């Protein structure tokens, strides 16, 4: 079909949607293409008029309708590739993550990976779509807790079990931040979706965050917090004791009774030089705060940086606005 509404749909796609196994068999026996047939119509591909998203390939159509027999037929007998990616970079596994029927999606996910060799299944699970998401990361980005938990459990290895006690190891490759800039933790902290934030209570994310906090997070937080509190105390003290002198009679209005001293009058006594030390600390502290955050701002981009919960969100504007204004005040002498 060539109409935008049905572009790319073949008789095989339609037969699969109707779950007509006999017609599907007949089409396949007569040479229907399972590897290159792609339905790129507007009613299938996400957009303004998308009615549902079943991917583009016959295999993803069969998987998303939950038809086991057609799925087995396509993979086992006709070699439909599980690593084929549509125009969005999604494989059949990505497509299953996006389905509303979570139980069906999990069941078909298991079925598909059981039908292909281990090498192909591992490759399919680690393929990234155009947004850089594997099926696991896509589930996290969508806030699909049920699918995320299922995928995490699929990847864990149980070494031994005694009664109700078991020893398991989870694969943290896509969850922790050491290997990629788009880890599950990055997705959670940068997402604006409330359901995504709930993933912090899901195993093993909860345990990972707890371990990070106990190992180095608490110490790092304490050092930065105390340093910033000390910086703000110095900044406040310097501001309170800024160099002022009384206005001469008849100068100014009824409200203003003090004015800024000239630069040469500001540093004469011991107290003035103590204040100068505080001002120097304030200036260098402001520069350090700004410079230390520049690499992260460049990495994430200003928009994502401000919206990222791990960097303080909108509070970062206040934190950096303060040293900028202080630096401006010191340079301009007002």
From TrEMBL:
Keywords: ANK repeat, Calcium, Calcium channel, Calcium transport, Cell membrane, Ion channel, Ion transport, Membrane, Repeat, Transmembrane, Transmembrane helix, Transport. GO terms for molecular function: calcium channel activity. One of its GO terms (cellular component) is plasma membrane. Signal peptide: none annotated. ANK repeats lie at residues 7-39, 131-154. GO terms for biological process: calcium ion import across plasma membrane. The chain crosses the membrane at residues 221-241, 276-298. It is found in: Cell membrane. Pfam families: Ank (PF00023), Ank_2 (PF12796). InterPro entries: Ankyrin_rpt, Ankyrin_rpt-contain_sf, TRPV, TrpV1-4. It is a multi-pass membrane protein. This is Uncharacterized protein. It comes from Engystomops pustulosus. The lineage of its organism: Eukaryota, Metazoa, Chordata, Craniata, Vertebrata.
């Amino acid at each position: 079909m060539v109409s935008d509404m049905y572009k790319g749909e073949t008789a095989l796609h339609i037969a699969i949607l109707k779950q007509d196994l006999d017609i599907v068999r007949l089409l396949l026996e007569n040479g229907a293409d399972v590897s290159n047939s792609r339905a790129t119509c507007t009613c299938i591909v996400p957009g303004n008029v998308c009615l549902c998203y079943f991917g583009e390939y016959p295999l993803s159509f069969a998987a998303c309708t939950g038809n086991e027999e057609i799925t087995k037929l396509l993979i086992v007998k006709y070699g439909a590739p599980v690593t084929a990616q549509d125009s969005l970079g999604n494989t059949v596994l990505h497509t299953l993550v996006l389905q509303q029927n979570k139980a069906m999606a999990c069941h078909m996910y298991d079925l598909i990976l059981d039908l292909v060799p281990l090498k192909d299944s591992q490759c399919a699970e680690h393929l990234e779509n155009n947004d850089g998401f594997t099926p696991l990361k896509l589930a996290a980005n969508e806030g699909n807790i049920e699918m995320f938990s299922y995928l995490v459990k699929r990847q864990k290895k149980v070494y031994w079990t005694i009664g109700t006690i078991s020893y398991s190891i989870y694969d943290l490759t896509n969850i922790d931040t050491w290997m990629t800039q788009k880890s599950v933790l990055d997705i959670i902290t940068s997402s604006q979706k409330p359901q995504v934030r709930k993933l912090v209570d899901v195993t093993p994310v909860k345990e990972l965050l707890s371990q990070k906090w106990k190992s180095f997070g608490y110490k790092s937080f304490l050092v930065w917090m105390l340093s910033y509190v000390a910086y703000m105390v110095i900044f406040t003290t310097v501001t309170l004791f800024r160099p002022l002198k009384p206005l001469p009679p008849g100068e100014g209005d009824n409200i203003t009774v003090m004015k800024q001293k000239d630069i040469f009058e500001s540093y004469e006594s011991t107290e003035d030089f103590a204040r100068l030390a505080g001002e120097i600390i304030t200036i260098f502290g402001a520069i350090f705060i700004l410079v230390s955050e520049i690499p992260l701002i460049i990495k994430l981009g200003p928009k994502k940086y401000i919206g990222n919960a791990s960097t303080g969100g909108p509070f970062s504007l206040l934190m950096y606005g303060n040293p900028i204004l202080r630096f401006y005040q010191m340079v301009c002498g007002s």
